[in-house]
Fold these 2 entries.
Entry 1:
Amino acid sequence: MSENQAIEEFYTENRTFPPRETFTSNALLTDPQIYNEASEDYESFWAKQARELLTWHKDFTNTLEWNLPYAKWFSDGELNISYNCLDRHIENGKGSKVAYHWEGEPGDTKTITYQELLDEVSKFSNVLKEFGLKRNDTVAIYMPMIIELPIAMLACARIGVAHSVIFGGFSPDAIIDRCEDAEAKMIITADAGYRRGEPSALKVNVDTALENGAQSVETVVVVNRCDLDINMNSGRDFWWHDVMKDAIPICHPEPMPAEQLLYLLYTSGTTAKPKGIMHTSAGYLTQVAFTHKYVFDLKPDTDVYWCAADIGWVTGHSYIVYGPLANCTTSVMYEGTPDTPRESLRNGPERSEWSKDRLWDIIERYKVTQLYTAPTAIRTFMKWGSDELSNHDLSSLRVLGTVGEPINPEAWMWYHEHVGRSNTPIVDTWWQTETGGHMITPIPGITTTKPGSACFTIPGVFAEVVDDDGNKVEQGGGYLTITHPWPSMLRGIWRDPDRYLETYWSTYEGKYFAGDGAKIDEDGYLWLLGRVDDVMNVSGHRISTAEVESALVDHPAVAEAAVVGATDETTGQSIIGYVILRGSSEESDDLRNEIREHVATKLGPIARPKAVFLVPDLPKTRSGKIMRRLLRDVAEGRNLGDTTTLADQSVVAAIQEGAQHSDEN
Ligand code: WTA
């Protein structure tokens, strides 16, 4: 272990899961030759996919123009995104096929076919036009998980208006920042959406935002989801049902240039102002359609696919809306949280005040074939216990996916055994808002998986793990870089080219720097190690949070864990662990020490946490990422910085209490 090693690796995993015959006998992709084909000529490979998966108004002759750091894919081609997601399927006789089985949190349901979706989208495109919106304008969307949300997005795409979806959990300040940066002319919202049995207000936040800024917004369109009595500002605010009443359900899908801006999606950096990540049309749709089809082994005629994310995140953009619809998928869309008050479950089991089996209930009722969710959700299900699944028939599931964070091997195994009944492949998909679509993931009919590893780059994408000096690491830890442009890559940061260059392209010359640590093992498998900002430096050893957290969760008493490096006079930093125990485990000093020792045994003494705090919960963003910055503040006894993106504000107080309590003991 040398001092200049970027990030050291401590963990080794020996379990492997080759694709099963029962799966490969019917899988879309089983021949690894596709990787060679893509490596030999990746531009031709993507050109072929673009022509096979999409319908073009005008074919392209230029596959890629690459002027680092700016890529243009298929630039002289023309297509319309909403035509590709809707009209062409209807032309192929699929008008009566279900696009979404939607389920509200209170248990109300709605089914919308491709033809109905096209009608609604066309109507709303006409509404947008009526309000004066035209190509290259931007519109903000701040909505719950209701069908009107994809309708609004596709209606924008149909006429070349770029949307900027603002996650429904964000505050008025976030609305102001995003609307001002994008100069949004309209906000599409709802009175509220249901979350944990209650309407969670949206329109009042829009009102507050517009009282305090966001001057560019002229119009607000409001869906009535919860029948709340809300303020409607005359001349500015319009009900969705009113403006849609007489709208005409026919709107020509205008051919758009391949590089037409499709959307902005803001990602919050840890400190600075959010970055408006830009995604354009044809390249984006090519890669999301390709990955959605082959990574989930999607069979549109028989599958019922469910991505249980929120459309407010990129996962929802790419894998609830654009990818699935481009592939003529039948999807499930669900409004609420995995635990819901009991009375909201139709015919639900009466076991406890809150039902914790909503996901399994939905999978059983709709016979879901693919489930795509986040490691944080899986660890929550682990904490709730496998009994929650026992009364549900999950045998329809064929492929399981995860995204958003490194999945620790124990959570992977739990997902495999309890949800996948030990015979369903798991695809651990690494990607980012910036990458638009999957980049590193198994392909279920080809890849032998290892629990906790995202395995390999997809065909046509190329990654390298590098050390501090940018030299390629053949085996061991380092930083993840992408070495060639890819079709769904971000096209920049909205109105901030300098920041684009600086954030992604200046750390390693000629390569995209993802900001993640990664290691490559002796078989060439990639393991993601978390954000490099979170890497801990203990006596000169750079240790990833992901490995220590995995080792903590590996202890039978531990359900969830987060670690941070806190300043330490002797070692530079010391590792502090925050741990949530499984339901049945009792707190004690002995247990804390045992957990610390467990890490030392798994990874070596250098990785032994100096302290382990038992806490009731962990601070997370609404997309489920642990906010380690806040935990560092707690560990170092500082006042907390910005907590606006925190999902549950009460968690930090509980942790501070938990940390104090553990200290006292
Ligand atoms: C992390 C979500 C490990 C990573 C699509 C990345 C992952 C950030 C994985 C992007 C995974 C996402 N394994 N880490 N399978 N997937 N990440 O922009 O740190 O919300 O850089 O996009 O999530 O988060 P974002």
Entry 2:
Amino acid sequence: MGEERSLTLAEARRLIDLDTRAIEGRQRVALKDALDRVLAEDLIARCPVPAHDNAAMDGYALHARTSGEESPRSLRVIGTARAGHPFVGSVATGECVRIMTGAVMPDGCDAVVPQENVAVEGDRVAIDAAPRPGQHRRLAGEDLRAGDVVLGRGRRITPADLGLAASVGEAMLDVVRRPRVAVFSTGNELRDVGQALDAGTIRDSNRYTLIGMLLRLGAEVIDLGIVRDDPAALEAALIHACGATVAADAIVTSGGVSAGDADHTRDVMRRLGSVAFWKLAIKPGRPLAFGHIAAAGRPVALFGLPGNPVAVMVVFYALVRDALLKSMGARPEPLPSLVAQCDIAIPKVPGRTEFVRAVATRRGETWHVRPTGAQGSGILRSMSEANCLIVLEHERGPVEAGGIVAAWPFHGLV
Ligand code: AMP
Ligand code: MG
């Protein structure tokens, strides 16, 4: 793959997309365990939902046209239909059945008169207004007909989908297996939580942010810890990630890919596979290595993210997220985006996409966004305090106070 070049976000996304394949392998899981999993097959309704015409309200079931012409109509109550206990028999002209919400409509009935609209007189009821055929009746198959696609292949299962699958009687679902993603941080300066900080060292925070984002996305994470800035250590880590023990589908690393870094990263990654080193026209998060490592024969996707803690998150959301979703067989869903008024001016030059950490609040009908303090790409606190990222598009110039911007809310992003 190519030498270092500067790419727009859109170009980088397209190149990654072109080079991303869906993983193989599926699993049958209990419905309760299927939340957020990706459906491997279309789910087809084996029965209609609801299975029978039924009452949408508590009241009296009758046949609208034969309920009589006189006003008020007087009908004889010949029985009761409850949810789970249908009325047996049929209902003739001048008759009705007491019915509860969800109960099967008795034979001969096509409408329900709500109980608040009748006057009960012994075993008869009186109705003022003429009932409309079909009123307060739910039709069999109104939600789903037998043979309908309930949920399409590639769907990431939501709580509503769990209920929908239950409504057609599915106790198990066929889902794509979780992708195995190996994660490690590179840098001699990095120490893990729990280790002492000696002179010049910092905590490895990126691995924890990455693990969080990957788990939210539904990946199985294999934590390979901190790897020294040393060709042999890097090579060993990549080979281990690809080998039979870890068997990663993808590797996500942070650090060691910027232009100022020692060339050994490039040498090792190139030797073990086919990896491009890009300069992205985005801020924060300029450097990115992307490609495949083929150390164990089969190509394993590699995302070499920048070292800066905020850049790691931005590049993950802007580039890695969609690629991993695609590899999981998920149908692409557009990123949720707010249209918001920016409360303060933001300097911006055309020619790169910029991401600004911000807090979005709603005032009246309008969403407002305000950047969170210092935006240095190492300042993770401002990411934690933010609830969205303002996205300033490639061609855009400065934002004036009150200008309209797009923002990705974190809620729903992963
Ligand atoms: P690099 O891309 O390796 O040159 O790293 C850029 C900056 O990010 C440096 O200040 C690093 O110390 C910092 N950095 C790199 N990796 C991590 C990490 N895992 N956790 C926190 N900071 C990091
Ligand atoms: Mg480094």
